[in-house]
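note to self: dont lose this again. the chain is below, predicted strucutre after it. 196 aa total, dont forget to put it in the shared folder this time
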Amino acid sequence: MAVLRMVAVLMVLVCLGAAVGGCSGQDERVDLRPLPTVATPPYICGHIPLEAVERMTALRAPRHRGSFGRITGVKRLSGWCQVFGPGEEDPVLQVDLLLLRYYDVDEEVRHGARRLPEIAPGAEGYYYPDVNPADGRSTALASLIRGQSQLFVVLNRGGPGRDPAADVVGLITLIGPRLLPDEDHPTPAPTKKQGA
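---
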């Protein structure tokens, strides 16, 4: 009986020591490496590389919803993708592709945004490195504009210890050229590799 009690106490201590990761027995360390520079399968929502999402949110196999596609008679893509933590209703990451250009890069830079580096010919963009600094969350926003389409990546809660600005810039760099192709030469949707 004393041995069982000691084992139970040890299990509680182990679980308390891993409070951030819970008592799952899995290694829950956050991957602090930069996002990949090449988008590879598997994808969520048809276009967003799962590896990048997992790295920037510190979530494994996260719940997600949304898709991207063409509206009848329109060459350009539109759509959205939301990523959720376990049991959460608000997305930790959201990607929106709009058919209308809502914001001007120069105007956003005047309001404190930083310009994105060149990602694709004819595209320009901006990012806000810390959207809500007062609440202590790792948040950031990036937007890329090409023609009349505008792509947004909004990180509402990044992985602990990660740079949210680098992550939104990294993700928009990965997906921007595919989701905002040259309107005269649309890029095909990613295809699944054999066995992926």
